[in-house]
């Protein structure tokens, strides 16, 4: 691609009107490179700005005074302020600033102690071994549907001690909730997202009621959070939904992206086979080269937001 082609590609870029060609081959990275070179602070058709330089992005993500994660003003017109999707996304950690974010994040991080996470390791290894064994029995398989997607659902299901027979709907709920966050959505997608939030919350209320009557083991995240009593029930519900969503799509996609990279670079795959100790830097490189999360966003802060009360008060 010559300079004029790169300039035209950068100037014509619109993240809300991505074509199929954008997703193919090296096209996304060619586009990002063109933007960095010719239009690193790109003004989009809807008035937003698309930043591609590390220094600019680092500044935006670190500046919590002028830039905000709070999306109430955005989600209200899209979802409706009385909708389940609005309730979920404005209560979960990812779309909130301090002090709410800090207060809710603290007990979740404390409940996910090193010992708790380490205690999950044997179960994860057994799960992966069983999934790989099943793949060997199949003549052909879908990496995502038959392998990658099962791992986060099972891990988070174990973390919340969700009975195995109840885990069937978890991935579908997650996909519907996350799908409603796409830059353009249909009324059907939003309806499916609202139904998924409602069904998930309804199930979690029953699970929380059961935990109140009979607490689980110390490794059970839900039991630990209930014992600390720092979150309202609504905050607990919505952030348990968030844990599934945050861990589900990213984990599933990095497994698929990683295999794609190794299939394209067999020498790197052989290097890892010869020295399994390279697995940590290999994962880091997969995350760098084919990140499952290609886009983040912040709002420019305007008037100070009113201090929010814990949900349910």
Structure description:
- This protein is mainly alpha-helical and 313 residues long.
- The protein is 63% helix and 3% strand.
- The protein is built from 17 helices and four strands.
- It has helices spanning 3-11, 20-23, 27-38, 54-62, 72-79, 84-89, 100-111, 114-119, 121-137, 143-148, 150-159, 170-179, 187-213, 221-228, 233-264, 266-274, 279-289; strands at residues 41-43, 49-51, 67-68, 299-300.
- A hairpin with a 5-residue loop joins strand 1 and strand 2 (49-51).
- Helix 12 packs across helix 13.
- The longest helix is centred in the C-terminal third of the chain and has 32 residues, at 233-264.
Features:
two-stranded antiparallel ribbon; single chain; 63% helix; 4 strands; mainly alpha; 3% strand
In DSSP terms, counting alpha (H) and pi (I) runs of 4 or more, how many helices? 17
Helix content: 55-70%
**Strand-and-helix sequence, N→C?**
HHHEEHEHHHHHHHHHHHHHE
Q: Can you tell me the residue ranges where pLDDT is under 50 for at least 5 consecutive residues?
A: 303-308
Topology, pairings included?
Layout: H1 3-11, H2 20-23, H3 27-38, E1 41-43, E2 49-51, H4 54-62, E3 67-68, H5 72-79, H6 84-89, H7 100-111, H8 114-119, H9 121-137, H10 143-148, H11 150-159, H12 170-179, H13 187-213, H14 221-228, H15 233-264, H16 266-274, H17 279-289, E4 299-300
Antiparallel strand pairs: 1-2, 3-4
Helix pairs in contact: 1-3, 9-11, 11-15, 12-13, 12-15, 13-15, 15-17
